[in-house]
Amino acid sequence: MELELRINGIIKSLDVAPNESLLKVLRQEGYFSVKHGCETGECGACTVLIDGVPRPSCVTLAAQAGGCTLTTVESLGTMRKLHPLQEAFISTGAIQCGFCTPGMVLSAYELLKRNPDPSEDEVRDALSGNLCRCTGYVKPVQAIMRAAAMQRGETVPPISSPGSSENFKPWDPGRSPLEHAEYGASTPDDPTVGAASNAQIIAPNTPESTDDSSSQGGTATLVGTRTSTDLSIVGKPERKVDAVKLVTGKPAFVDDIELRGMLHARLLTSPHAHAIIRDIDASEARALSGVHAVLTYKDVPRIPYTTAGQSWPEPGPHDQYCLDNRVRFVGDRVAAVAAETPEIAEQALSLIRVDYEVLPALLDPRYAMDPNAPRIHPEPESYRIHDASRNIAAHLHAEVGDVERGFAESDLVVEGEYIVPQVQQTPIENHIVITYWDEDDRLVVRTSTQVPYHVRRIIAPIIGLSPRRIRVVKPRIGGGFGVKQEVLLEDICALLTIATDRPVKLEFSRAEEFRSSRSRHPQILRMKTGVKRDGTIVANQMTLLANTGAYGTHSLTVQSNTGSKTLPLYPCAHIRFVADIVYTNLPPAGAFRGYGVPQGFFALESHIDEIAKQLGMDALALRRQNWLKEGDENPLAKALGEGKEGYTQIIESCGLPQCLQIVEEKLNWQEKRGKGGSGRFRRGVGIALAMHGTAIPGLDMGGASIKLNDDGSFNVLVGATDIGTGSDTVIAQIAAEVLGVRMEDIIIHSSDTDFTPFDTGAYASSTTYISGGATKKAAEQVRMQILDVAGRVLKVNPESLTLSNRIITAHNGQTMTVSQVALHSLHIENQQQIMSTASWMSYNSPPPFAAQGAEVEVDTETGVVRVLKAISAVDAGRVVNPLMAEGQIEGGATQALGYGICEEMVYDQQGALLTTNLSDYRIYSAVDMPQMESYLVETHDPFGPFGVKAIAEIPIDGMAPAVANAVADAIGVRVYQIPLTPERVMLAIHTQSQNAKR
Amino acid sequence: MIPGSFDYVVASSISDAVSLLQQHGDEAKILAGGQSLIPLLRFRLASPSVLIDINRIDGMEYIQETDNVLHIGAMTREAELDNSDLIRERYPILLDTSSLIADPVVRNWATVGGNLAHADPGNNHPATMLALGASVVAVGPDGERVIPIDEFFTDNSFETTLHPNEILTEIRVPAPTDRSGGAYIQLERKVGDYAIAGVAAYVRLNDAGQVTYAGIGLTNVGPTPIKARNAEQFLLGKALDDASIHQVADMAAAASQPTSDTRGPAEYKRAMVRTLAVRALQKALGRATGGE
């Protein structure tokens, strides 16, 4: 049907089918800012304004918009002239992956049109239809409040930290390309648009002096031991280098390209939890007009592999096959189709005849090891399975000392069983990949991944191409959180391109993302701890049963972390950790931010509170008495490496005491603890501690190449994979710092296996440490080359030269700019390209630490838990970018709140997932948020670049147990299972009152 | 997934919509806000061959009180209830109801008529309208008929007594009397989610404080929206005090037919109907007697 749409002021006459969504039509017309995140109007990524009103375009028919005026973010501002909202989103650090940003900006735009002076609650309400998995909404709310003030003509205070370079505008074309005469440092030309953070650098060891103005908007305060001011860019809240393109809706994501002749792929997945495919007949599907390829297990090689994107050789079970004649969960892949249109592909799926022999399904991990349980991996080809005959994917046993003796020597032995759910990473961008042959007959894989290099190596044997014929490109990624550390779609999509010689796109729908991707391992953990009367922990034991679902992917290493990153928090002479990770016929678990550690800390930190209760001790005093200190050795590091023996780890920096002190004070612990009372609403406070690792020691490696250009700019090429975390920015800061130049002098390009050096990828909280380390090393070498040339020109010893603000200065006052050095070196004399490549790895994995606290209110008539306050204090070593570090804390803590309060994957009796949309699976929205506060406690660790430690995962580790401890404080009884759903809390209250009556 | 193919027609008037319905019969579906229907189409849970878009019909979005009746046009968006002074001042139970639906983006388009006609037991308005004793206006080839709300829903999920060739055009709610008040309360896992359980209560009192009208509707605790008739009957002629409120709450809980699902076990939901009924009645009483 003919349709006239007025899009961003342009009248378009289009021919659309009645069943086409507005989302599809807008993207077809090149409005790529409108994103596909779900199909049910729940995520808000597809928000557009129709006649000025925000509407989810995925549940709007294009036909309905006929004659209407449509507005997308493309029309709001341009790269050179941003709308105040866009400007504020950048300057407050409200953009992480940027996938949901256009939708949020439009919702905010409409709010400010009708209400120029909104309250924070009104802003949250307006944003509540736009889900974001990265930010925790703290900074987006700040951004909107700030933009509103700017639009009202109010002067907004520059929210920058002292000494930050405020004028970075990546879109600034600059002056003359060669800048011969430019000697001075840059001058801020508009202080209001500067990179900004609320972070304050506070004198060492004075947390009580921190500013207490934190509102629900959230403010992070930097509390530090940093005294040196020798750094000019590292430590500053620089603006995210990719923020402008994200906030203006530029085509930056996998799906934002158009390839002529691209086919659309769809997967047929299993309706049964466990079945053998006796036969499969795709002839009818293949005969359908518009279908170009159908793949079944008959068409692909049977090669065992793992989807876990880890270093070679991956230590976990190799128990998957591209397509198999056995299906092991509802949602397992059966066949794939590539066709001219998505509609034809879907029709073709319905024409594939599958003859299933349905087998008994194993759905409860507690019966997995039973000799009569169905065997999920009987096939002989699979390898690195611990014991396939008992469905044990992996087994771990680590022990120091003699726990039995330790228990015997204890005055009190406390036991407890804790249950944690299966939860989903839920990036707003689902998995998506586009593959095509390039003009050299090499296969290009454009994919939403955290591990481009692992993708290339892992798919090569499956698709029958050598890695040299594969190029993996990672554009911007709409969130990963671990689920994109799995190679889930690339192999099939590549095989379809090989089969058809056409570009092919394959993406998960939201329901498929829930059903067929990966999740966090659910576990049942048993704690047994022996203590002396005075609180000294004598022996500590954690045993767990984890459910990896149908495939073993990260089963070994995730659960290894459950023990190795948690138990060392309380070193004692006798420690035992035992884990069985079993198969079931449920969707597989895999990598999820935190990687086994949130599970472990939920058990450990809940258990510590229980021990304190039994000892009659203050829960914080018990922690302080037993915790890890600087100089201690991590007792489990050697025993639990990455699937092999690990490396000894000595704790060189530990900010725990300060972290705990801050959270204790900010939560008003002394006054509020133990005051639950007996009314209908009861309040409580709880605290949990956490530690993590920084990269995998002796395994993770990253490379960086840096070359100098005529104008004194540098191309920085890194394998590091920015998945929205801001690693491109952090790496650019590190390069700029070492090279003595500005942020805009760094042109960063990351994650293209043809052009950037190897990097293990974005996982294990490694990027700033590992890839940053490589960048620092390469930059130092380039710096030396620059000084060598300058020394030759100036006829002085290069070692006597200094380089800062783009100027090389000699003792005698002679100067040269970096650009002059570049021109000299490239064109004048002894010509050479100043450049270097370096890689970096480490045998040390310095742990970041955190204290996290929550205040809750429990409605004892309904069991509903409302989190009022969530406070995190994190020791992440030296902070390269406080603004982005805060963002990591806020986002991680928010995901942990979901883990503790409302997220859980639920199945029916046949093993089919029930929580397949964003209504049944509940992630936090802007209106669910508590008041959130973040504090950065700076320490200096000797191993990483500039003393950095990790920030990405530590904030997700302790918030769920903090909430559980707060609930226990409020109602006087513990709920041993998360999420703390109303009925679980109610049951605990009810049981307690029944017991009290007896 | 992609919706199956269908024809899309725009109705220019109510009578046009009716004649289109006449023409296409069971094969046609009315498209109002689309917030429930389009996901159903995507998942192929509905596959009409014709969609009749009634969004372009003038004069179906209004909120007005005349002759002691509140008239709500069927295409009135939830956001309009959210923002209406009339609703806030005189029908706070309707504001309770609309403001709990999903999120503001959805409420910009979701319609009151669609919320009722979809007859989803998880939708909020059915319980509230049952409590209020509302009626709906249906227009068909033979003209207009008024259906009392308790005759609008059937015993089957997602089913109403609208004829295939009828269109819902208006909702009518009795205007408040001097001593009347209502409230809608629901329990949710998170803001904007469908209710774990929801209770709407509406009462009218005489000067002696005795109940002359009681309406109690339940959300998402059965296959259909539920009217707790026994509980309503029980209250007539009684004063609303702690004892009667708790007794009637027990009866409301007994009227519920919850099943266990991702929003909780049946027993918990039933218990919550009791708790919410107490709260809704207390709030309704407060409003009826001049409090909030």
Q: Rough shape of chain B?
A: globular
- What CATH calls the topology of the largest domain in chain B is Uridine Diphospho-n-acetylenolpyruvylglucosamine Reductase, domain 3
Number of discrete helical segments of chain B: 11
Radius of gyration of chain A: 28 Å
Explain the overall architecture.
The complex is a heterodimer of chains A (998) and B (292). Chain A has 6 domains: 2-75, Beta-grasp domain (Ubiquitin-like (UB roll)); 84-164 and 199-247, DNA polymerase, domain 1; 263-359 and 425-516, Aldehyde oxidase/xanthine dehydrogenase, a/b hammerhead (Aldehyde Oxidoreductase, domain 3); 382-420 and 519-651, 2-Layer Sandwich (Aldehyde Oxidoreductase, domain 4), CATH 3.30.365; 653-692 and 843-998, Aldehyde oxidase/xanthine dehydrogenase, molybdopterin binding domain (Aldehyde Oxidoreductase, domain 4, 2-Layer Sandwich), CATH 3.30.365; 701-841, Aldehyde oxidase/xanthine dehydrogenase, molybdopterin binding domain (Aldehyde Oxidoreductase, domain 4), CATH 3.30.365.10. Chain A is 26% helix and 21% strand. In chain A, strands 10-12-8-19-16-17-18 form a 7-stranded mixed beta sheet, with helices on both faces. A 6-stranded mixed beta sheet of chain A has the order 6-7-33-32-31-23, with helices on both faces. In chain A, helix 2 (84-91) packs across helix 5 (138-151), helix 13 runs parallel beside helix 14 (597-615) and helix 21 (882-901) packs across helix 22 (959-971). Residues 161-219 of chain A have low confidence and may be disordered. Chain B folds into 3 domains: 7-53, 2-Layer Sandwich (Uridine Diphospho-n-acetylenolpyruvylglucosamine Reductase, domain 2), CATH 3.30.43.10; 63-174, Uridine Diphospho-n-acetylenolpyruvylglucosamine Reductase, domain 3, CATH 3.30.465.10; 180-288, Enolase-like, domain 1, CATH 3.30.390. In chain B, the strands form 3 sheets. In chain B, strands 4-5-8-6-7 form a 5-stranded antiparallel beta sheet. In chain B, helix 9 (229-235) runs antiparallel to helix 10 and helix 10 packs across helix 11. The longest helix of chain B is centred in the C-terminal third of the chain and has 23 residues, at 266-288. At the A-B interface, strand 4, helix 8 and helix 23 of A face strand 1, helix 2, helix 6 and helix 11 of B.
